Amino acid sequence: TQPVLTLNDGVAIPQIGLGVWQIEDGEAPELVSNAIDLGYRHVDTARVYGNERGVGEAIRRAQVARSDVFVTTKVWNDDQGYDNTLRAFDESIARLGLDEIDLYLIHWAKPSQDKYLETWKALIEIKNSGRARSIGVSNFQIPHLERIIGETGVLPSVNQIELHPRFQQHDLRAFHKARGIATESWSPLGAGTLLNDSVLGGIGRKHGKSIAQVIIRWHIQNGLIVIPKSANPKRMAENLAVFDFALDDEDLVTIGKLDSPEGRTGGHPDHVAW
Ligand code: A2P
C-alpha cells in the first residue's frame, strides 16, 4: 500500500500522484483511468491543462469509488480575484463532473497582478462551503505565503513548487516545515532532464532500479508529495514501484550534492509572463 500524508487541516493525501500536464483531454479518459486501475489514487490537474473533462471521465470510468481518488485542480492566472475565482471553481467542478474536489490550488501568485490575496479569500470561502476539502497554493515564494497567512490567518495546506534533485528548494521547504505546510514537487523528474544523469544512474544500478524510480524514492524519503507525469502505462507503473527498496544515507548525501541554483527547468515565480 502507498503512503498517505496528513495535511495541516486533517485531510489525507496519497504521497504519489499522477501529474497530467500535457496529457490531451481526449486521451485522458483512457490514460488516467488506466493509471487508477494500475494503482494511482491521486491525480493532479489544472484548468490551464485543458483536460479536466477527460480526467473527470477517467475517474468515473476507473474501477474505484470516487472517494478513493484524491483530485487536485488549480485556478489559472487570468481567473484570479474573488468573484472570478468562485466562478472558475464552479466551471472546473462542472468540467470534472464532480460535486467536490479534494484540493484546490492557486496556480501562481503572479505578483505583478496582485490579486492572489483576494483569490486566497475565495478559496477560503470554497473550503468553508465544503466543495473543496483542502486548499493551498502553487509557486508561492515566502513573501506571498507570509502575506496570505498574515492577512487571513488561514494556512494553505500545501505549496506545490518545482522541486527535484537539481533544484531542491531548501529555504522554502524549511519555511513550509516551520509552518506545517506540505511541500508538493512538480516536475519531480526535472521534466525528464535528470533521466540520463550518471550519478543517479549509478545509484539506480546499485538498487536494480531505474533513474526515475531513484528520484521518486528520493522525494518520498524527503517527505514530499510527488506527482510524476507520464503518458505511458509502462512508465506510470514503473513510477509507482518504489516501495520495495530504500535509498541509504550515502545515496541521500550524493543526491543532495546535485542541487544547483541554476537547476530550475520551469518558469520563475516572480517573473511569470503568462
Ligand atoms: P512520458 O510521458 O512519455 O512518460 P516530470 O514529471 O518531472 O515533469 O517529468 C515528465 C517527463 O518524464 C515526461 O517527458 C515523461 O515522458 C518522462 N517520464 C516519466 N516517467 C518516466 C520514466 N519512468 N522513465 C522515463 N521517462 C519518464
Salient structural properties:
274 residues, alpha/beta, TIM Barrel, eight-stranded parallel sheet, two-stranded antiparallel ribbon, 10 helices, 10 strands, 39% helix, 15% strand, globular, binds adenosine-2'-5'-diphosphate, NADP, oxidoreductase activity, acting on the CH-OH group of donors, NAD or NADP as acceptor, AKR
Describe the secondary structure blueprint for this structure.
Blueprint: E1 4-6, E2 12-14, E3 18-19, H1 28-38, E4 42-44, H2 52-61, E5 70-75, H3 82-96, E6 101-106, H4 116-128, E7 132-138, H5 142-152, E8 158-162, H6 170-179, E9 182-186, H7 198-207, H8 211-221, E10 225-226, H9 233-240, H10 249-256
Parallel strand pairs: 3-4, 4-5, 5-6, 6-7, 7-8, 8-9, 9-10
Antiparallel strand pairs: 1-2
Helix pairs in contact: 1-2, 2-3, 3-4, 4-5, 7-8
Give your account of this protein's structure.
This protein is α/β, with parallel strands linked by helices. It has a single domain (4-197, 213-243), classed as Alpha-Beta Barrel (TIM Barrel), CATH 3.20.20.100. Helix content is 39%, strand content 15%. It has ten helices and ten strands. It has helices at residues 28-38, 52-61, 82-96, 116-128, 142-152, 170-179, 198-207, 211-221, 233-240, 249-256, and strands spanning 4-6, 12-14, 18-19, 42-44, 70-75, 101-106, 132-138, 158-162, 182-186, 225-226. The strands form two sheets. It has an eight-stranded parallel beta sheet. Strands 1-2 form a two-stranded antiparallel ribbon. α5 links the parallel β7 (132-138) and β8 (158-162). α2 (52-61) crosses α3 and α7 (198-207) crosses α8 (211-221). The longest helix is centred in the first third of the chain and has 15 residues, at 82-96. The chain is globular and about 55 Å long. The site of adenosine-2'-5'-diphosphate has 18 residues, from α9. Adenosine-2'-5'-diphosphate is lined by residues 19, 187-192, 195, 210, 212, 228-232, 235, 238-239.
